[in-house]
Amino acid sequence: MTANQPIQVAHYTISPTHRPFVIAEMSGNHNQSLDRALEIVDAVADSGAHALKLQTYTPDTITFNGASEEFYIRDAKSLWADKNLYKLYAEAYTPWEWHKPIFDHAKKRGMIAFSSPFDTSAVDFLESLDVPLYKIASFENTDHILLKKIAQTGKPVIMSTGVASVADLDESVKVLRANGCKDLILLKCTSTYPATPETTNLLTIPHMRQLFDVPVGLSDHTMGIGAAVAAVALGAVVLEKHVTLRRADGGVDSAFSLEPDELKSLVIETERAFLAMGQVSYTLTPKEQKSLQFKRSLYVVKDVKAGEPFTPENVRSIRPANGLHTRYYDDVLGRTAPTDIAAGTALQWNLVMND
Question: How many angstroms separate the first and last alpha carbons of the chain?
Fold first, then answer.
């Protein structure tokens, strides 16, 4: 495949010539309530997003219930400072028995529903639900065991590229391709929560597209929608944002998640950015052609008697464009009128004596 080759996912086509594919990541923002999860699905559908994504793991499939320091987050600046990994994932995970009702509801609302599996048992489970594609999270993008399992499904793959070097990514892309992945999209990702604009480095998007010759998008952890809109201008074909109903409700990812109105703005503004990119063009649009008549030209703005010279007081550049071009202004000044000319007359050469 190449960077420009369209990727079909159910009824959506992902390519540089199609509107950006917007993925709403629910993550743990359901706060362990299925009712809230289904409410998020409805809010995401109402926003116009194209896909809803979950994360498929349990505390036991993603980490180990250990008490030593290595199982704690000791970064004082982290959202999850001093959290034990096992307890954090127990708080954030989506019960597997919720996947089907959430997926069914998302599909009923017209969206693609899929997930990020975090181990091979999650892939088997998601295959049983017939998901149309897979997402690989940044922290799993060097897990070759998982990459092989996902690639062997033959389904399209979207892989985030955070916390990985170019060499890591090159190796991972080769593993995916060697195991049957034909449709691959990479997402530029800065794996900090939230990410700052200064560390987002959107200019990596076109470089990554050229380097791996695959479509590239953005997994965006910055606040707001500005980075996502800018990413579209750099060719991003997929945009992924975490979503919640209300940040004030709290939750493991709520601090950097969009609320429904913000997600709707993201869908609208990224589509506008995509449509506005267009092509290199200096050609007037048909509507601009009609507006040409309202450009400026030379008009007589005070009554002029025959033999009277044209001056800055009786000739001006005004709208509309029915008079002489303004390039002739200096040529006209000082020359005389052959006849009386009423104020408001578009100046033409037959009204200017060849003195």
Answer: 72
Shared domain check, 223 and 316 = no
Are the beta carbons of 9 and 112 closer than 8 angstroms? yes
Domain at 99, CATH number: 3.20.20.70
Domain carrying residue 176: 7-57+93-277
Q: Before 95, cis peptide (omega within 30)?
A: no
Are 149 and 226 in a shared domain?
yes
Amino acid at 320: P
Burial call 49-87: b when 16+ CB within 10 Å, e when fewer: bbbbbbbbbbbebbbeeeeeeebbeeeeeebbeebbbbe
How many structural domains does the chain have?
2
* Helices 226-233 and 260-277, packing angle to 10 deg: 20
Written as one letter, the residue type at 279 is Q
By C-alpha distance, which of 312, 254, 210, 264 is closest to 30?
254
> For the chain (length 355 residues), average pLDDT per consecutive 10?
90 96 96 97 98 96 91 86 89 96 98 98 98 97 98 98 97 98 96 89 97 97 96 98 95 91 98 96 92 96 98 98 98 98 98 89
